[in-house]
Specification:
The protein is of the alpha+beta class and 305 residues long. The protein has seven helices and 16 strands. The N and C termini lie far apart (79 Å).
Length: 305
């Protein structure tokens, strides 16, 4: 009797294990995400982009994967909806329809004048790889009074026409005040970052929006921001840049800026907007350059450590 029951149990177990195995295999096939023609498998409790080693040594084989490794050498600030383009990487916020962060790696070659690159041939365009529910459109900005502000600046990607064109995807944009900010103060900050390539062999720049609280007349603090267009694209209250300069001798310096999204007088020095990196991290909910130990830095905001 006992032997018969054991036999039945063994048969049921075999059927159950077979069903489980088939289910797992088919599930894995469904969950494959293809990057550069190669399947990446999602692991339990590990985001799919966690399979990319940000700190892996860069070997220029011409592969987009290698370029991502170089750009993200010092770590990902976050892993939410990460999207890699040919010359920059970003994390897209589907709720606000603007990026969480945009990462760039710059050298002299990236920013020097290139007669083969013509910005006037570039058009702002929706990124159709984004689900329509979460996509921002040119119509959202039309008549809003805000510029489509680049997070990865077009002037940072002059190596190839395609690279400049990709900075015009709306996934790389956020609504910015035009006069006095996007076309002036913010533009001066972008130019400052490009000038750093004359000082450092490699410049790593992370840019993004902030939504900071403000104390109202009732004495309480609120986070309030405008939205524009049919897709409710968020208008950030502030923007940040966190920059690391890597010298030829391996020494590292960091600068961090936060600018209010408003008209700023032209005579305002950029140093006014310098903040401690931790301030930006706390406000953004991100960790910048987390593969880089802060005690390895020589300077932060120009001050020796």
């Amino acid at each position: 009797m006992i032997s018969k029951r054991l036999l039945q149990l063994a048969q049921l177990s075999a059927v159950g294990l077979t069903g489980y195995y088939v289910g797992v295999v088919s599930k894995e096939e469904e969950n494959h995400i293809f990057v550069d023609g190669r399947p990446l498998r999602s692991m339990p409790a590990l985001p799919i982009f966690g399979t990319v080693s940000a700190a892996a040594p860069f070997v220029d084989s011409g592969s987009p994967k290698d370029r991502v490794s170089q750009i993200m050498k010092y770590g990902f600030p976050g892993l939410d909806n990460v999207r890699s383009y040919d010359d920059f990487v970003l994390s897209y916020d589907r709720r606000t329809r603007v990026p969480h962060w945009v990462f760039e790696h710059l050298t002299k070659e990236h920013v020097m004048k290139n007669d083969q690159v013509d910005r006037s041939k570039c058009d702002f365009m929706a990124d159709e790889s984004i689900h329509p529910f979460f996509r921002s459109l040119n119509s959202d900005y039309k008549g809003s009074g805000f510029d489509r502000g680049h997070m990865a600046a077009a002037g940072n990607h002059k190596i190839a026409q395609k690279h400049v064109e990709q900075t015009f995807f709306l996934t790389n944009m956020a609504p910015q005040v035009g006069e006095g900010f996007n076309r002036h103060a913010w533009n001066r900050l972008e130019k400052h970052v490009r000038k750093l390539t004359k000082v450092y062999e490699n410049v790593y720049c992370c840019t993004g929006p902030l939504y900071l609280p403000r104390r109202e007349s009732d004495g309480k603090c609120y986070v309030k921001y405008q939205v524009i267009g049919a897709n409710s694209v968020a208008v950030p209250t502030h923007f940040y840049k966190v920059v690391v300069g890597e010298a030829a001798d391996g020494s590292l310096d960091m600068e961090a800026y936060v600018m209010p999204n408003q008209k700023i007088p032209d005579d305002t020095p950029l140093s006014v907007f310098m903040v401690q990196p931790e301030t930006v991290e706390r406000a953004a909910g991100l960790l910048f350059f987390d593969k880089l130990q802060r005690n390895k830095l020589t300077r932060i905001n120009g001050r020796k450590l």
